[in-house]
Write a structure and sequence with these properties.
Blueprint lengths: L6 E4 L5 E6 L6 H11 L4 E10 L2 E10 L2 H9 L3 E4 L4 E6 L2 H5 L10 H5 L8 E7 L7 H11 L6 E6 L4 H8 L2 H11 L10 E6 L7 H15 L1 E3 L1
Parallel strand pairs: 2-8, 7-8
Antiparallel strand pairs: 1-2, 3-4, 4-9, 5-6, 6-7, 9-10
Helix pairs in contact: 1-6, 2-7
């Protein structure tokens, strides 16, 4: 935990909660690792510097040889996570392929189109919280029931957009966003044999909404991809 600037705790019902950028600042190293976790270990991530006009900015580069699975079945943050009383936020990562969530994100049923399903006793999910709080028992129970796992097998990593970890992993979605757009336009994602992308990493914003806007702008205005 000290190496990555994160904090690891257990919920009362035995799930593992990793604060990678909610009450802690996080780090570049944590952002790199969380981005790789979002892709289910099927992608590579590097961080460096790139030129944008007359500016040099920190930049994340991602690539995968399994784009449909890594980006759409795993990294895409389309699964709404419920707590005991409210929606916690959106989840991505390997647990999505266990839960087969969301069912319909494209014109087709997403996982039926991809023809992919995972089986595991462990459910790993990366969470983008809507409010600045850590996931707890309710979120762990919701994930376990949807993934058909025991609560003790749930591992939740949480990072807000206005943390360093969050900014890195959001920019690391650049290839995923492009492939999702291609799928929206009717292109079969299963025909894509490789994907690469790069985008600058947003500077810290104290306000959560401004932080999310800045992170998305990094992808939309300055991101580039190759398929």
């Amino acid at each position: 935990p000290e190496l990555y600037g994160v904090r690891v705790t257990k919920t009362a019902n035995g799930a593992t909660a990793i604060d990678a950028g909610v009450e802690v600042a996080g780090s570049l190293a944590a952002g790199k690792l969380v981005t790789e976790i979002c892709m289910g270990g099927l992608g590579e991530v590097s961080i460096g510097m790139e030129s944008y006009g007359d500016m040099e900015l920190p930049t994340i580069t991602v690539w995968t040889d399994w784009p449909a699975i890594a980006l759409l079945a795993c990294q895409l943050a389309g699964w709404k996570i419920q707590g005991k009383e409210e929606t916690y936020g959106y989840g991505s990562g390997p647990a999505r392929a266990l839960a087969q969530k969301p069912k319909r994100l494209l014109p087709n049923l997403l996982f039926e189109q991809l023809g992919y399903r995972d089986e595991s006793e462990v459910a790993v999910v990366v969470l983008e919280p809507m409010a600045r709080r850590l996931p707890g028992e309710g979120e762990a129970e919701f994930i376990a029931s949807n993934c058909n796992t025991k609560v003790e097998g749930v591992l939740m990593l949480a990072a807000s957009a206005n943390s360093l970890t969050g900014a890195v992993q959001i920019s690391g979605r650049v290839a995923e966003m492009g492939l999702y757009k291609l799928a929206q336009l009717g292109f079969d994602p299963l025909k894509v044999k490789g994907a690469m992308g790069m985008a600058p990493i947003a500077t810290n914003q104290p306000d959560e909404d401004r932080a999310m806007g800045a992170c998305n702008d990094c992808i939309i205005l300055a991101g580039s991809t190759y398929y």
